[in-house]
Amino acid sequence: MQHSYIDKYWDLESPVHKIDPRFKIIGCVGFILFAIFTAPTSFLTFASYGLLLTVLIALSKVPLRFILMRCLVIVPFVLMVAMFIPFMKKGQIAGGYSLGSLKLTVTYDGLFIFWNVLIKAFLSIMALTLLISTTKFTQLLKALQRLKIPQVFIMILSFMYRYIFVITDELELMLRAKKARSIGGSRWFHFKTLSNMLGVLFLKSYKKGETVYLAMCARGYSGDIKTIDEMYIKKSDVAFLIIMFSMLSCIRFFIN
User: Fold this and answer.
1) 100 backbone dihedrals φ, ψ, rounded to 5°
2) What CA–CA distance (Å, rounded) separates 20 from 166?
């Protein structure tokens, strides 16, 4: 069965790929913090952040379409949360809508907050996608460990990425078996069947996780991320971080 890996382009040869994962993580977190603390009305600043990310994507040789498609998977969830903000925030009314007896009003303050949440979420997701796309997942976990991220968090990420494909294959096999054994039927029948399948899949996942964890502990697993390649700080890594934060500072404080 085919799978779509989040670090699909980690083995490309580019200046971004050669940067130490620890410095890429610090740069990504710094970019997100700069974007979060930018005023909602600083449209040119947000455009500059987007231009900076576009330049980094071009240097990384990762297809822009791949980055955008990954972002579009998560952005709808942000929209589901933020779409109600324009109707809940008080202020000057920008427009009104009537749904039978229900009257809804949109305010300018609510629209600004909606824009603020949407653009910052999109830029943050774009930066994280670029980080993951240019870093092998094991190296990313190793970098998080070196940065003293809690071991439990790293362990959860490790197991999640390793076995999400196994669970996906199991679900596809169950769906294939369902299609082969059920023809026709009402929507309620199919909905009930899918609900039962999800319950069975959860139980199988829990049992498989327990079995694998006990097997790993029996073989000396301690929670440490083991990799063949060691991480060494290079001058280019320090230069990347200095340039990155210098550009972010210039965009944040000199572009309005």
Assistant:
1) 70, -120
2) 30
Alpha-helical regions (H) of 41-150: 43-60, 64-82, 85-88, 108-133, 137-146
Distance of alpha carbon 240 from alpha carbon 16, whole angstroms: 9
- Domains of the chain, by residue range, sit at 21-254
- Integer-rounded Cα radius of gyration of the chain: 23
* Rounded Cα gap, residues 19 and 134, in angstroms: 9
For the chain, what percentages of helix, strand and coil (3-state, to nearest 5) are there? 70, 5, 25
Q: How many CB atoms lie within 10 A of CB 100?
A: 5
- The per-residue pLDDT string of the chain (256 residues; one tens digit each, 9 = 90 and over) reads 555 566 778 888 889 988 999 999 999 999 999 999 988 888 899 999 999 999 999 999 998 888 888 888 888 888 887 777 766 666 566 565 555 565 666 676 777 788 888 899 999 999 999 998 898 888 888 888 888 888 888 888 877 777 777 777 777 888 787 777 776 666 776 777 777 888 888 887 778 777 877 887 887 776 666 666 677 888 888 999 999 999 999 988 887 6
CA atoms of 244 and 135, how far apart (whole Å): 18
Backbone angles phi, psi at 98, to 5 degrees: -120, 130
Residue of 138, 140, 80 lying closest to 114 (CA atoms): 80
Q: How does DSSP classify residue 14?
A: S
- CA distance linking residue 139 with residue 134, whole number of Å: 10
Phi then psi for 99, rounded to 5 degrees?
Answer: -120, 85
Number of helices and strands (H, E) in the chain? 9, 2
